[in-house]
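pasting for the record
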Amino acid sequence: MQELDVRAIVGALLSKIKWILLSTVIVAALFGVYVKFCVPNTYKSEVQMYVSNINDLASSNGASASGLSASQVLVNEYIVILKNDAILSQVAAQLREQGDGYVMTNSAIRNSVKMSSVDETAMLNISVTTEDPDLSKAICDAFAAVAPVQLKEVMEMGTIKSMEPAKPGVKVGPNITKNVLIGAVIGFALACVIVLVLYMMDNTVTGERELKRRLNVTVLGEVPSLLPKQKGEKKNGTGK
């Protein structure tokens, strides 16, 4: 097995650069075709809800800084509570009662939902991603209907209300360009690895310099090849 140095690695890769590039294009194209025809589209809908602390004594000029800070803390607590199975069961029941006929398990709802505060404010953002734009919106509507009642019962403090109704889901995936680039990187890396492995496993001596490097011996001379040169064959001392 051959030893590799930087020059050997670069030389081996450059010698097979056409094969490497072809493999890169083929794998990238396969990724693109697979994503295009086999990966379903996904749609995201969002609803934003404002959280306020009812224990805050707001002045005539607006809410106090301490009250806003308390509301921001409530947002994080509300996120934990809204992901609880008891609340998700209410959301699932609301989905069935909305007249859309959607039936989902708590786990399916939890996996489709992401919740976060908006720029560390008292605004809670609920985003839902599914393969159906209407379902994404329906889940957002269900959370908007369930959250104010259920959170008031659980926390016994604070209020939450949606700023505006959720809109139908917009397409967010799959990202074909991103997946094609990923495929190109994978194809390029695999091709390079295969080329280097084959190079390391090749024990053929192709010239005087390589013979000296491998065996550390002095070469006194070369025996010329007496065979006629084949078409496309390079002529050297080894006849190869």
